[in-house]
What we know:
Oligomer: single chain
CATH superfamily: Alpha/Beta hydrolase fold, catalytic domain
Number of helices: 7
Largest sheet: 9 strands, mixed
Number of domains: 1
Order of helices and strands: EEEEHEHEHEHHEHEH
CATH class: Alpha Beta
Shape: globular
Distance between the termini: 22 Å
Radius of gyration: 19 Å
CATH topology: Rossmann fold
Helix content: 25-40%
CATH architecture: 3-Layer(aba) Sandwich
Amino acid sequence: MVCAAPQVPAARADDGSPPVLADGFGLTQVAPATGTVTNFVITVTTKEVAGEHHIRILLPDGYQAHPAERYPVFYLLHGAPDDPADPYLAYPALTSATSMITVIPDGGLRGWYTDWLDQNTAAGAQNWETFHIDQVIPFIDSNLRTVAGRQGRAIGGISMGGFGALHYAQAHPELFSQVATFSGADDLSRDEAVIRGAVIATLTDVGAPLCGSSSASSSTCTMNFGPPVSSDAIFGSPYPVLDADWRWNAADPSTHMDILSGMGISVYTGSGAGNPSEPEFWVESAAAHVKEHLDALGYPYRYVDYGDGSNWGPSCHGDHKAACWAQDLVDYVPRLEAAFAAS
């Protein structure tokens, strides 16, 4: 549970350098911020997750000029094995937003936005959910002029981050008013064995059919997910023998859509051009399961299946690539800003 944080405006950077943020909530900055006053990266450590971690923060252009203004926050969760320090994650639709802050926190090479069941692997401490919910969110609220409440907070994610966004919205519905999944790993059930297999592949570091790199400069996924760990590390056994995989089924976001009652819900997917060797082919199936559950509940939502991408963006071919996600955000960000304004 995130406690209300006293809001201390970040030090103003009139020279165009990043603002100075104060340590707190278990986060310690271990390097100077890099970037500009509106697009910068900080590096932190926490006992909850081994290693150093980057957090990218995008401020609207008017943030410094209007010191009395507060802004809602969009938390965007990246895919595996991305890093918020990579500049391409600052998608144009995000940097051109005029009325909200975007925060892209580190989710690890394959952290899966969860506190792992096994904390004694070669990867070290892996309490990603605690890091994000109990540390990053109050840290942002205490350092920046945010609308620090449910109506001023949205969560979204790409690929692995799509799972994370739905998981966080379902586990903490009191924190978020909007949730979006872009080509998300939205179904971990036995019915989506390929997506479950992709998660296992990131853990065992054998390569994954759904690695979800959003690198704009890469046509294939980087296959380094860190030191290999057991397939049981996050959710216990993934194998459906005598219900041993019950934790995976419990974590499946597609079957818990009822928790999102009253929340703005957006789902984006391509088709992979119908090619089963393309990750987006399986993502589309997972998204369809989410849609089926939402329809059964009668909940309103926005669902975009852009198929082969021919009518979506000039560089989008309906596959699991950054060009499609950039267009997703072109469509989504103005809608999100309008929803924030309406609330």
